[in-house]
Amino acid sequence: xxxxxxxxxxxxxxxxxxxxxxxxxxxxxxxxxxxxxxxxxxxxxxxxxxxxxxxxxxxxxxxxxxxxxxxxxxxxxxxxxxxxxxxxxxxxxxxxxxxxxxxxxxxxxxxxxxxxxxxxxxxxxxxxxxxxxxxxxxxxxxxxxxxxxxxxxxxxxxxxxxxxxxxxxxxxxxxxxxxxxxxxxxxxxxxxxxxxxxxxxxxxxxxxxxxxxxxxxxxxxxxxxxxxxxxxxxxxxxxxxxxxxxxxxxxxxxxxxxxxxxxxxxxxxxxxxxxxxxxxxxxxxxxxxxxxxxxxxxxx
Length: 300
What we know:
Domain EamA: 4-137, 153-286
Structural class: mainly alpha
Largest sheet: none
Family: Belongs to the EamA transporter family.
Main location: membrane
Distance between the termini: 19 Å
Membrane topology: Multi-pass membrane protein
Number of helices: 13
Helix content: over 70%
Number of strands: 0
Shape: globular
Organism: Rhizobium deserti
Strand content: under 5%
């Protein structure tokens, strides 16, 4: 019944796994805020070319929900990606991808606090496995380092990105009833506009790097696949099975991101990475198997 939603979510997480690799490859070829700007420039150009007639039809409803659409663009699109690309200056693509496994746990926590959505014991077990995997990666295989607060600065930055995307996912329950093209186009436009001051900040600090050939290729990939394809499919997935269950599929980002990092960048695959990946996959399998009988819907 939910096979389409599962398919959408798998493809979305594959694109996001590649996003962390693209961000790592971008270092030295395009600066983080410049990459964020061009990512959304490409995405906005494409989605508006596809969506203008639909936007005109949806405008009466969309206009009433502009604050929420602005929120989606600023928090889910700009904040998440700008912080993620900044984190990749200080930590590895493998770490960034595996740390994103904390997003499902945050989604469940926020949904429970705000809406008292049911969580099964199996799902709690899945969260716990995810948490251990994230801690294992963030501490570089040395859990005692967490007690000494010796996290890499890039890993610490990722906490901001993780919270931002979890909040965005939960907030999708309030999305207006408009076509998916309009739902993608307007937040993307707001994301593009909010990256302008970030680029200005980079320029004023003398840290801005205009894209070279590799930088343009990376920006194009993030604009098409990590932005449009992934975001649209993720929205479809959330519509199909709800934010809690859809959020669990983000645990696949570490799987795809780690494999792509090893294959494309040549990063070292450590034993603790493998253990973290097993924990991430185990967490999603256990939590999905043990979901509450009346699984939460997108609107509930």
